[in-house]
Design brief:
Blueprint (H helix, E strand, L loop, with lengths): L2 H21 L4 H8 L3 H11 L25 H15 L11 H4 L2 H18 L7 H13 L3 E5 L6 E5 L34
Antiparallel strand pairs: 1-2
Helix pairs in contact: 1-2, 1-6, 4-6
Bound molecules: zinc ion.
């Protein structure tokens, strides 16, 4: 493929992703982060493609930053767990924290996976209440892994979002079995003993 073709394809993917993010009412700085487009380009896209009265709102202010939102013992917490499963299923996140991947993998590809997963969540959830900004924050928090992580229940295999710093072992949301952290191989950036030199 010619360089110009490559560039054209990349630009088109970038614009497609930006429009998907606009439709999901992502904040301007979120769209800039995932697409690399300038704030000015994003504003122009809004004006060109989103008709007034189309029901797409522009949100201002800071993106969410509180992981407690996902840990509530309410139906919202259950929805966050369903969303985490879908993010994992679509490959938008891994089941282990991987902070280095935030820099390694092309942002546009990651942004598309995130949109795929979020759109699937909207389709399967009868009344979806988690907005895109919270979904993006959940994916990021689970990838960084310093506050919350995924853990499979040893008793029923259900996927749980657990807090890293707790005084006692978290309980499975599905069966209430305690879920102790298994081994050092699962801890943070620790590698399996065999790969150490
Ligand atoms: Zn369980």
């Amino acid at each position: 493929m010619h360089v110009t073709d490559e560039r054209y394809k990349r630009d088109r993917l970038r614009l497609e992703l930006a429009l998907r993010l606009i439709r999901h009412e992502a904040r301007t700085h979120t769209i800039r982060h995932w697409t690399g487009l300038s704030d000015d380009r994003v504003r122009k896209l809004y004006r060109s493609y989103i008709k007034p009265g189309a029901g797409v709102r522009r949100h201002r202010g800071k993106s969410p930053a509180q992981v407690n939102y996902f840990l509530r013992a309410t139906s919202l917490g259950a929805e966050a767990h369903a969303l985490a499963s879908i993010l994992l299923l679509f490959g938008a996140i891994s089941d282990k924290p991987d902070p280095a991947s935030l820099k390694k993998i092309p942002t546009i590809a990651r942004g598309r996976l995130l949109c795929d997963a979020y759109e699937a969540y909207r389709r399967v959830s009868p009344r979806p209440r988690i907005d895109f900004e919270h979904a993006a924050f959940l994916a990021k928090a689970l990838t960084v892994g310093d506050e919350i992580r995924l853990r499979f229940c040893p008793a029923c295999q259900a996927l749980n979002i657990v807090e890293i710093v707790t005084l006692r072992d978290p309980e499975c949301r599905a069966c209430e079995a305690p879920m102790p952290e298994k081994s050092t191989a699962n801890r943070g950036s620790a590698r399996p003993l065999s790969s150490r030199t």
